[in-house]
Amino acid sequence: MHLAGQFVRRILQGVVVVLITTFLIFSILRIVPGDPVRLIVGGMAPDNLVEEIAQKMGLRDPIPVQFGRYLSQVVQGDLGNSYQRPKNGMMGQGGDFNANMDVEMAEVSDLILERLPYTLQLAGLALLISLIISFPLGISAGLKPKGFISKIAFFISSVFVSIPNFWLGIVLALFITIKLGLLPSIGYQNFAYTILPAIVLAVETCPFIIRTISVSFAEISQEYFIKSGKVRGLTRNGVIYRHTLRNASIPLLNLLGIQLSTLLGGVIVVEYIFDYPGLGQLTIYAVLQRDFPLIQGIAMVTSALYVGLNIAVDLITYSIDPRLES
Amino acid sequence: MSNLLSVENLSLKDRSTSNNVLRNISFNLREKEILGVVGESGSGKTLLSQAIVNWLPENLVISSGEINFLGKKMSAMSENELEKEIRGKEIAYIGPNAINSLDPTYSVGAQLLEKAVSIDKGNTSKEILKQKVISLLDDVLIPSPEKRFYEYPSQYSGGMMQRAMIVDALLSSPKLLVADNITMPLDVTVAAQIIKLMRVLRDKFNTTIIFSSSSLPVVREISDNLIIMKNGSIEEQNSTNEITSNPKSEHTKELIKNTPKIWSENINFQNIETKPILSIKNFSKSYKVRNKNKFNSFYQVKAVRDFSIDVYEGENLGIIGESGCGKSTLSRLISLLEKSDTGTITFNGEDLSDLNKDKIKNFRQSLQLILQDPYNSLPSRQTIGRIISEGLLIHTQLSKMEIKEKVLSIMSEVGIDQNEYNKLLVGKSGSFRQRVSIARALILEPKVIILDETLSSLDQKEQEMLLSLFSDIQAKRNLTYIFISHDLAMVRKSCNRIAVMYMGRIVELAKNEILFDKCGHPYTRTLLCTIPTLDKNPYDKNLYLMDGEPPDPTEIGTECSFKSRCPHFKNNKKGSTDMGLIEIQSGHWVDKCGVDCGR
What we know:
The complex is a heterodimer of chains A (326) and B (599). Chain A is mainly α.
């Protein structure tokens, strides 16, 4: 019962968070310079036509009015249509007068749903790789904070955290794809195209996970209920698996919640370098083309994912440690 | 009878400094004996207990000597054998840190069951083991054990956790139980319950017990034989009666001399009935706590209920009660750190209830609070001089030189060397830090000082020193003290008048000698019977020690809140709703319900 109550309360809070983020993005897009209509109709179009189309699209109304209209669409499940991307997937080049006013535009929700699986795949693989590296290193470093493995873990984290991701991406593409021909790297045709970008992302997230695991393991190991396990007659491994791991997993889960949400939001630089067709890449083009409905849709979906993941993480940690609830 | 355990010339060495922390400890322990070990902190009693269970800190090693258990040399046993047969099995250990002994993320029952399964090695079904855990929880008097089995450590009180840890130790039916300082963090009433329980369990389970504590009267209650330790060696060992009635070594004699006398020593306080300097009328405070089982609903925790008292100028008023009775909330209310829900406070004839800012600023100079924890209540990165001058910097516009002069004179008044002015607190003892707190409070020349458990983290000797400092300062400055404490022995020595608090209310208020000799409320009697002392206690524990713990503060109704523990209350009767203090003789106030019950 109490978990359900918590759940309802958190969902309501989450809805508010999503609404605020969306409103912020919505207004900032309209406040900063750059008129989407100019990009839609092309550079050669006369000013009065731009103004006319803008009026017709409602872009000259007060921002709250526009936002209200947008929201009423959203609650009906309609995220709107893209300003730039036609349904058939062909992109107009923009420059020409009246380039694509007659073509039917793609729905934002379709565009996002089309890209989301790729991003999920990339984020999932990246997280998996970094957990495989971080768990053994972090745990053994945490159990013996002055030991040899702890030094290795610290060394690896320092190196990983200092490598710029764009550089690593280029180097990997150069050596593994071009020189060795082991894995493909540009674009997407099959699963193999996910591996290199995932490695780059994993290298980025690893240091945080290693650090969190080792610190929380070291901290929990100092707790009296862990140290006294020995004198109570419990075995060392039993104490580590049943008690240290369980207690140390709470800060780790919180970190994973944040890391995973960041990864899902589309990792712009990495997707751009590898020309990976995920949400990140979609975001870049949407911003460059001032594609308001698309940017708003992506912002809303990613913030909803972020909120949802963190609610899930909180509910899991509550069920591990009941004291956290109050 | 055969020896269960014999320790021969045991010495322990610190690897890094190669100092001996235990020297030549030898003793024998017969089966079913209870051996008491008494020593101040740092005397080595905890290390001795840990050496016996083979659970020493990593930097310590046995440098010479031998521990024989059941005729076998422990040094000859492998770590594997120790883990499988001895530690937590044949020899069980209970420490002072019960509240942190179990994983907060599993229920208490699950963890006791985990241990039961671990020692049983799969011979018995889980269901039977669970029944065993529950019946042991029942043996240590945990109320409704079937329900409590599923509760988490954070839902247990300190006393209940200590009981659960006793169950944890008994699960393996150990031959030897090492109880190291187990009553230290507990309230006296709960500590007395635990000791009574240990005796019952010894008879029921035939366990041999080593019971160590820093308090001789506590250990005397339970032990057959005694070891007195000092600085890592044994000063004296003999039967308990022999040691307490006829001590041989100087250290033991001093120990007995320093044990607080309650009834055997005459106290003499002047009768102070001057004008009230501080007068509190009908203070109440409740807190809202979220009800986790219902959506958006709250409990009321009534921390302080209808509290009224007049504090006379120049007196020492003691306010005593168990933990959770609302003492600390009260100190925050009196010092206006929190606003009470109802009631008025008058200081020096001036009503402060309207919370006028200027009046409160003056009031804060005149009333100072000294807290319990000398480590966290002082900033660690400021020099001692800076800490003490804080009040002057806030309340006055004195020049730097004038401030320094004042600080130095206060420092010498409370016995801090003037060379310490520019030093930090790093590495200073608890009593030194409390002197700094006292200096910081005195610098503003207050009229009233509230001492909220100020002395309870200090040992006997340090307490004595600070108490005499307090009375010197009082004589010089005509101060009024309010001692808030759970330590009856300390209050006996220092206070003219004593108020007993239970569940946020005063149940009895009387002069020191009247309260200790002719108390009127059954709760006061219970508190008094549990005081650890070597004196003959006029209140017999077998008659007055109550079971159970204070009720849940969210469930206080309009009835007498003591009814769940009151020995005079019969279950078929409704608790009295007629509460409030009445004066049964001049200056002796007792709760109405308690007067009826006491008869």
